[in-house]
Amino acid sequence: MKKTVLAIALAAASTIGFATSASAQESNTSVGVNYNAFGYDRSDTPDFDIPSISLVGGYKFNQYMGVQASYGINAGSTKKDGVELSTDSHYGMALTGHIPVADAFSIDGKIGYNNVTLKGKVDGYSSTESDSSLGWGVGASYQATPDVKLSAGYEMLYNGDHVQIAGATIGAAYTF
After folding, report:
1. Under 8 Å CB-to-CB from 167, ≥6 apart: which residues?
2. How crowded is residue 159: how many other Cβ atoms within 10 Å of its Cβ?
3. 3-class SS at 10?
4. Which end of the chain has fewer CB within 10 Å, C or N?
5. Residues 163, 41 contacting (CB under 8 angstroms)
């Protein structure tokens, strides 16, 4: 059901966006890299730092709305009380919103659907677990040059089963 709702929302947004994007004079497509300082928070375990690096692609239908896809991989792990935890991978798709506040600055937000795979190790045994949830993010971006955008924000990557994976993100993107 969740996948059907997301597919309908993306299809509706894309038809609205393609109708308005022809008049836009700014770059619409971007590819970038983010560093994600995610933390794993579960009430009955210690908190873990599980950073990742993401490849991010986006398309803006107009100056206010777009879509974004991302794929991230492990950038480190934390070991506490004999347990080591890391992000094996994560991927997602989101609708994005942008509010220009100055010539080169904007406030950004997104809401979408993410899948996260975590890898845990205890006493030589390892296990992976994967799950999906609704995710969201807020932040700001700065158009440093006509082709380079810098961004920083906060993202809730996963929120379910008494577990939250969230944290600060910073990134750079090339627009074309």
Report:
1. 36, 37, 38, 39, 51, 154, 155, 157
2. 16
3. helix
4. N
5. yes
